[in-house]
Amino acid sequence: MKHSKQGTERATADSGRRAHTKERPHSLETRTEQVLTGESIGVGVAIGPAFVVREDPEPDLRERLSSLNREEEEERFRDAVIRSISQLGKLQARLALLPEDSQFEIGSLLDVYRRMLGPSRLQRGVTRRIAEGLSAEAAVFEETEALAQASHPPQGARAGSGEDAAAARRRADEFREIGRRLLRNLTRTPFLTLRGMPDGAILVTESLRPSDAALIDPSRVAAVVSEEGGATGHTAIMLRALGIPAVLAVAGALDAVSGGAEVVVDGDRGRVVVDPASDTLVEARGAVAAYAQERQKLGRMRRLSSKLASGEKVLLQANLELPAELPLIAQSGAAGIGLLRTEFLFINSEELPDETTQFELYAGLVEAMGADTTTIRVLDWGGEKPSEALERAGLSTLGETANPALGLRGIRLLLKHPALLETQLAAILRASAVGPLQVLLPMVTVVEEITAARDIYERVARRLRRKGVALAETLPPFGAMIETPAAALTAGALAQHADFLAIGTNDLTMYALAADRASADVASLYDALHPAVLRMIADVVNAALQHRTPVSLCGEIAGDPILTPLLVGLGLRSLSMTASAVPRVKQVIRSVRYEECVRLGRRVLAETDSKAIMKVLQEFGNAEMG
Ligand code: PEP
Ligand code: MG
């Protein structure tokens, strides 16, 4: 484990991140306020005394290299696996004490760890290395490090960026984390202990593992400051889910903060103030109170109706990527699922999910939604991600084209391999007997894709009925995603063949601007506020209205409250977004009037660049939404 070498000299505490100082004018002691910066995780501000925890050094892997006995090492490894599984079980048991959204975040991570400890590549790799003569410790270290590096190669050799790179980094962290747990169990080295930590203290540590974060009690720990980590890692995700303000990647924190020192942690701005001056403290106390009030207000939103101040109803639904997110939907007050991405069924599986597996899953979700509709999108495989299940079935398109996003993606892949679509449609149709649902086709570019898929849909329904399987009386609505410029520009024709349209601005932006949504190199060009994208949205909504075809929008921008009045002004009455965004969007919906949204829409469409559009939206937000 590396220890920070930074001295206490503040201006040089970090390369890139600067520490600033300010005198404490009213302090009897001559202590100086010190500001450190790091990565924010965005959950408010906390004030409290510092509790500094230094980790024990990692075990020495060179120990015991002589006199190794293969069977003994295998036995020790098995024992460490059993201990690790049992510790994860205890963590799992603790989850019930946490808020529901935290249960989901942490629960899915514990599942990942448990899968790694089961019959997996990791297990096979460690056993092979032991057979080659390594100690259990060295075998675990080398295997988990090799898997981590394969997931996220070191700088230079790495391909990909943006979301993909962040996911790869998280995967690498998962391997290293499980490796550390196994090593500590092999050598009986204790884990991070918070024994003796006073309630309301601020934990200052070199690094916080996700599983350590899972053990933190949000009612006892006011905030976290860590020298390592980053805003997109699992530790950050967990702290965010637990609602604990935190600043990560704060270089030199251990040297700068002594135990008991008063600390302000601003998780929104990524600032840590040690020994704050009195004006800093006053400001921080104001922020703590405002944050608590805001949370309360958003909590109340769940029960309020989603209507504009002028009375028109706007349907707010949730996008769902994993069934485990279900509790978040209930908490958010979303009225159903506007987009169920079914890719999860194919990603973590060695076999293609059969009809029954899919049916049980869809039926469970539909039942949980009660009278609210579930929109199930059939598989949107892009070819850019590996899927063991599709590869084994000989259906993967990976590596066959230089431009996977322009290749056999979404409905194109499904129509090329209709058996895949038939199985999924049969499962969805069977779930239609349980409650209201609708079917959505991804990546449509031509009318024929809708008509060909609908033929299959109706044929599958006839077959099921012949066999006496219970289905909904009328076939569930059959809709198309509008996420390519071709679909947007011919939305009128598509609207005549689809029962509803769903605008997917994530891909629409990518294809309209020729800017990969996952590439950091073109991130500044990837902008849904580009007039080209906004005009397409407006055209799609108009075409849908003309043909009386319901239309919704389910790209990421649906969850951005600053855009809400614009989307309403462009004519949308149905938005689907990540569940946690629903309360804030509803707050905006309830505060704006329809006529002013329409005026805003016209003004925005007259603008010619996205910066000017953002300025108009911000001015509207300041004037109308307070
Ligand atoms: C979209 O493209 O906007 C969309 C909702 O689909 P996905 O993000 O799953 O591609
Ligand atoms: Mg899409």
What would your notes on this structure say?
It is a single chain. The chain is an alpha/beta fold. Among the domains are: 5-55 and 193-278, Glucose Oxidase, domain 1 (3-Layer(bba) Sandwich), CATH 3.50.30; 70-187, Enzyme I, Chain A, domain 2; 478-626, TIM Barrel. The protein is built from 24 helices and 17 strands. Helix 2 (100-117) packs antiparallel against helix 7 (234-242) and helix 3 packs across helix 4 (136-151). The protein is globular and about 75 Å long. Mean pLDDT is 86; it is low at 1-28. It binds phosphoenolpyruvate and magnesium ion. Residues 339, 341, 380, 483, 504-507, 554-555 line the site of phosphoenolpyruvate. Its cofactor is Mg(2+). InterPro entries: PEP-util_enz_mobile_dom, PEP-utilizing_PTS_enzyme, PEP_util_C, Phosphohistidine_dom_sf, PTS_EI, PTS_EI-like, PTS_EIN, PtsI_HPr-bd_sf. Residues 198-270 form the PEP-utilising enzyme mobile domain. This is Phosphoenolpyruvate-protein phosphotransferase.
How would you summarize this macromolecular structure in one to three sentences?
With 626 residues, this protein is of the alpha/beta class. The protein is 47% helix and 13% strand.
Shape: globular
Name the ligand types: phosphoenolpyruvate, magnesium ion
Strand order of the largest sheet: 1-2-9-8-4-5-6-7-3
**Named CATH topology of the domain at 478-626:** TIM Barrel
Rg of Cα set: 27 Å
Overall number of strands: 17
Largest sheet: 9 strands, mixed
Structural class: alpha/beta
Helix content: 40-55%
Instruction: Please report the first level of CATH classification, the CATH class of the domain at 478-626.
Output: Alpha Beta
List low-confidence stretches. 1-28
Can you count the helices?
Answer: 24
What is the terminal separation in angstroms?
A: 49 Å
Query: What is the percentage of strand-forming residues?
Result: 5-15%
CATH homologous superfamily assignment of the domain at 478-626? Phosphoenolpyruvate-binding domains
Summarize model confidence as the mean pLDDT. 86
* CATH architecture annotation of the domain at 478-626: Alpha-Beta Barrel
